[in-house]
Amino acid sequence: MSEPSPAVAAAVEGELRLLDPSVRASAELLSQVLHPEYREIDSTGRVWDRDMMIASLTGDDAPHPGPLTASRMRGVQLDGQLVHVTYDTEVKGRFAHRSSLWRPTGVGWLLYFHQATLFDHAPHAGPHDKG
Question: Residue 20: is its pLDDT beyond 60?
Fold first, then answer.
């Protein structure tokens, strides 16, 4: 397998930073990773913008979900201005498929869009799984 492009490597690195609890708890660090036009559709269907997300993650009543496990992370550079990263997460027995779009800016690659979809962890073979 070939090495990922520098753009894919930067997006995956950014995604891993966002999984770090210390980054998620810091408005300053989050603002360094989230694009000014950031949008998210969470696993409940709620739509978030950058300011809402930063406030939610860093507020006094912010959720502290505990250890998060990420798996099957991979990225694809769609063109010079877009990287798509997909992966799965597990937090306290809740599983989600995640999809992110990263765009370059003057300060590096920033998360532009993210969506999470809950799924049952029951073993199954998806259209992209071999086996």
Answer: yes
Pick left, alpha or beta for residue 72 (phi over 0 → left; psi -120 to 50 → alpha; otherwise beta).
Answer: left
pTM, entire model: 0.86
> Residue 54 and residue 85: Cα distance in Å, rounded?
21
Cα dihedral 96, 17, 6, 108 in deg (nearest 10): 120
Chain CA centroid to CA 113, Å: 8
Interatomic CA distance for residues 22 and 38, integer angstroms: 20
**Complete DSSP assignment for 36-80:** EEEEEE-TTS-EEEHHHHHHHHHSTT-------EEEEEEEEEEET
SS3 19: helix
Spatial separation of the C-alpha atoms in residues 49 and 74, rounded to whole Å? 24
Mean pLDDT to the nearest integer, 74-96? 94
* Pairing, β 94-105 against β 108-119: antiparallel
